[in-house]
Amino acid sequence: MLLYADDLVILSNTETELQTLLDALDLWCTDNKMTINDNKSNIVHFRPNSFPRSQTIFHCGNHILQTVERYTYLGLVFTEHLDYNVMAKYVAAAASRALGLVISKYKGLGGLPFGTFTKLYDSMVWSTISYGAQYGEISHSRV
């Protein structure tokens, strides 16, 4: 299980185990007078391309959960086949937008000292690129 603020991800190895965990979540929600958000609650069946998607209909209480091809958790995109290329495209698009903002600021101010530009780059662009990367796996340096 992954928990962050008001987000919850339930991971399971089997369909039966997942439904059991969803039933436990529903019981907890009932006991605490809370409900799940139908629009944000989905199922992703992670599997190889050669393996068919589960046909099981999962529910949490009275809510039937949709099975979807991808899910975004804390800004990271996970596809049912764990295709890193999809995540890379999302990260590249976000980094491109951030770089556009840095360049716009640079031009709008008629230039910036190198140190200021690199601080903006590191805080806006590099942080976008490296978000979600395992510590130590990705690094950058300036020449």
From TrEMBL:
Residues 1-78 form the Reverse transcriptase domain. It holds the Pfam family RVT_1. PANTHER family: REVERSE TRANSCRIPTASE DOMAIN-CONTAINING PROTEIN. This is Reverse transcriptase domain-containing protein. It comes from Mytilus galloprovincialis.
